Amino acid sequence: MNVNLHQISEKSSRFEFSLAAKDLSKLEDRFAFDSMICTADLVRKQDAIQLHGSYTVVIETACDSCLEPVSIRMDQEFDLILVDEETYAVPESDVEISLQSEDVDFYKGQEIHLSECFEDQLLLDLPFSIKCVEDCEGICPECGANRNSESCHCSEKSRNNPFAVLGDLES
């Protein structure tokens, strides 16, 4: 979704759109979804554009530990200050950024590519580790059994552990 700068005024302009997974180029193939519902409120503030965005998406993927299918529902909001890349003045010295600083992104030309802003935000909001349940036990590296649904009969000593030699050392 592209928005022309002349469509944005000092009053809030709302844009509602949806994105499909095929519309996003940075998202890994292991994340699938039908539709990401997006809302963008844009306001012109002097030399910048203020973006308040929100989105809802249900992502289908696999658990990082046991590879079982997992659905992640994400309802997120974010704020960005969009600055023209061509007129942005790079600071001459180091600038301290606090956690309360507003997030800044850039646009180029006379259009703002909202789909890129929303894709970047989705990538930032994805959990680092995806689990089917918080205490997922994963897959046994010896026999391949899913430890959440079946008991594994492999002994701890039979596992190929490179640190097992340390157990033989005397203190």
Can you walk me through this structure?
This protein has two domains: 2-136, no CATH class; 137-171, no CATH class. A hairpin with a 2-residue loop joins β3 (36-45) and β4. The protein has 171 residues and is mainly beta. 7% of the residues lie in helices and 34% in strands. It has one helix at residues 114-125; strands at 2-4, 13-19, 36-45, 48-62, 69-84, 104-107, 111-113. The chain is elongated and about 70 Å long. It starts with a strand and ends in a 46-residue tail after the last helix. The model has no long low-confidence stretch (mean pLDDT 85). The chain has a five-stranded mixed beta sheet with strand order 2-3-4-5-6, covered by helices on one side.
Write the layout of secondary structure elements.
Blueprint: E1 2-4, E2 13-19, E3 36-45, E4 48-62, E5 69-84, E6 104-107, E7 111-113, H1 114-125
Parallel strand pairs: 5-6
Antiparallel strand pairs: 1-7, 2-3, 3-4, 4-5
